[in-house]
Amino acid sequence: xxxxxxxxxxxxxxxxxxxxxxxxxxxxxxxxxxxxxxxxxxxxxxxxxxxxxxxxxxxxxxxxxxxxxxxxxxxxxxxxxxxxxxxxxxxxxxxxxxxxxxxxxxxxxxxxxxxxxxxxxxxxxxxxxxxxxxxxxxxxxxxxxxxxxxxxxxxxxxxxxxxxxxxxxxxxxxxxxxxxxxxxxxxxxxxxxxxxxxxxxxxxxxxxxxxxxxxxxxxxxxxxxxxxxxxxxxxxxxxxxxxxxxxxxxxxxxxxxxxxxxxxxxxxxxxxxxxxxxxxxxxxxxxxxxxxxxxxxxxxxxxxxxxxxxxxxxxxxxxxxxxxxxxxxxxxxxxxxxxxxxxxxxxxxxxxxxxxxxxxxxxxxxxxxxxx
Length: 372
What we know:
Elements: E1 2-9, H1 13-24, E2 29-33, E3 48-49, H2 59-83, E4 94-98, H3 101-117, E5 125-128, H4 129-135, E6 145-149, E7 153-154, H5 157-170, E8 174-177, E9 181-187, E10 190-195, E11 198-207, H6 213-216, E12 227-236, E13 250-252, E14 258-260, H7 275-288, E15 297-307, E16 314-317, E17 324-328, H8 336-347
Parallel strand pairs: 1-2, 1-11, 2-8, 11-17
Antiparallel strand pairs: 3-7, 4-6, 5-6, 9-10, 10-11, 12-14, 12-15, 13-14, 16-17
């Protein structure tokens, strides 16, 4: 029976960032990953490090996203120096495109409210068409304007995942793919984790298995009311430089491909693609960047977001099983730096980051009727 300080269940972006943070602090960490049969939200990620517009209902989420965005450049440099893997992180700001004066006006009202709610920590500018064209010379004529924020950027999710895995190994942690966790049980002050052909005894356990947390959380006294939400993405052949900064739905990779996304579909666990949805994504992209017309699409995919009922993250410590935690969200790239640098210390015994206070499952336990 193997033993270690921490088991992180789930080797995607959320689990790997947390495991990297713990390992870099000197803790003995094992990442237990189901393998390629698992739903891979991390490998379908669009790659935005995005702040603008987030947290309108819960402004602390905007602060949490800004905290992560502010730590991202240092994390990326740290991972490169440790592993030689560049995450392609860039922080040129980002734009959200608007197609009418009414849409532009509504966007300004929403972002003004968010800026006020964060004490003006979140900042942005509204751009008319000519100002936007200064940033994106080939922007389509039908685009009225955009919101722009210096907080936004982008990175390559796959390189980030590789860098995190290599970083975990650099600090003596282990990444153990192969099978799903079947059972978690208490044994005195420890946890015994059972998976096919392996039993592990650990001091603390972090559930970061995405949608798999739905089955694991109740075993340690937690609740993970998660549902899948499909997003589809198209990728073009490599192109000349067209986009120096990401938009909400378009970004150009370090290799020159243009990523076009995304959709929001309630289709259960179907992670395939549908031609009508892909056609809508392509049409919207060409409207924004006419230079994309007649460009060859070389790949498309669907992936399942990990969504709570309100779309915000879930971070919680178990009261009935001290030492067990759950962590899940659909912004694994944006929040990677906060997960590694701020959330991991909480799991190791530090104070919880103040920004995550609202993000427990209790917010979903709303009484809908008055008992007699």
